[in-house]
Amino acid sequence: MRILESQIKPLIYSSLSEDVKGGDITTDAVTFKKNPVIRCEVTAKKESVLCGLKVFSTVFEIISKNGYKIDFLIREGEKAAESKRILLLEAKASDILYGERTALNFLQHMSGIATASNIASKELKGLKTKILDTRKTIPGIRLLQKYAVKTGGGENHRFDLSSGILIKDNHVKLAGGIKQALNAVRRYYSGLNFKIEIETSNLKEVAEAVKAKADIIMLDNMEIGYMKEAVKIIGKKALTEASGNITVEKLRKIASETGVDYISMGSLTNSVVPADFSLNFL
């Protein structure tokens, strides 16, 4: 997955406007008479998978009219050890101070997601089950969050409502049943090559979804015992996805005992702990 500069810049402009639209009183006062070119370093305060370097550098590309120089010492997707120097930045002191918080916010959030994704993916090492993200993202920065999941080793579920078909419980209620919902989708999108996924919450619904020939069956908020039974009912007639309140501690047990094809985790994006980096003048 790639993110383009044209996709990043509007997000950065919005973030800079939020943080420095009225100027920086403290920085302006300190650099009013003397605004030297400064070298600084960013270091990792805890071990983390690095993600968001392009976003970080684009902040200073936008904010530094006097030019800047940046040297990345660790590549995107690599693991930064505790106290490891990540990058060196050289720019006017005021430019660094104006852009520091915005740049670090992006870098820390994206690296936190990449780290969580990496940990989750490694829990499933040697098993067929893959980790998926969800649409439980922060409004406006879904692109960056899903990119970070991929960087850490996870996979992306549908990016938006138009990039995949997922029939949820409210769709089923509205259509009048699982079979009716699946048939409605097939009639409406008969020309598109999308797999149709449907959400189920009990074994009766699983059996109905199999009979209606769903392509993917989501097992939502089921106990492991019920998931095992559901996977037996489904067999090879559909792909399977476990979802709902899944933690890293449960991943390997769920995957190894049930044999589901995918496990989706909203926590990869909606409740991730940011990585911890610091920026200091040299």
What this model shows, in words?
By secondary structure, the chain is of the alpha/beta class. The protein folds into 2 domains: 126 residues, Aldehyde Oxidoreductase, domain 3 (Alpha-Beta Complex); 149 residues, TIM Barrel (Alpha-Beta Barrel). It is built from 11 helices and 12 strands. Helix 3 packs antiparallel against helix 4. The longest helix has 31 residues. The two termini are 35 Å apart.
Features:
TIM Barrel; elongated; Aldehyde Oxidoreductase, domain 3; 2 domains; single chain; six-stranded parallel beta sheet; 46% helix; four-stranded antiparallel beta sheet
The count of β-strands is 12
Average of the residue pLDDT scores: 93
What does the overall shape look like? elongated
CATH class of the largest domain: Alpha Beta
The CATH H-level superfamily of the largest domain is Aldolase class I
Brief summary of the model shown:
The chain is 46% helix and 19% strand. The chain is an alpha/beta fold and 282 residues long.
Map the helices and strands.
Elements: H1 5-20, H2 25-31, E1 37-44, E2 48-49, H3 53-63, E3 69-72, E4 79-80, E5 85-92, H4 93-123, E6 130-132, H5 142-152, E7 165-167, H6 169-175, H7 178-188, E8 196-200, H8 203-211, E9 216-220, H9 224-234, E10 239-243, H10 248-258, E11 262-264, H11 267-270, E12 277-281
Parallel strand pairs: 6-11, 7-8, 8-9, 9-10, 10-11
Antiparallel strand pairs: 1-5, 1-12, 2-4, 3-5
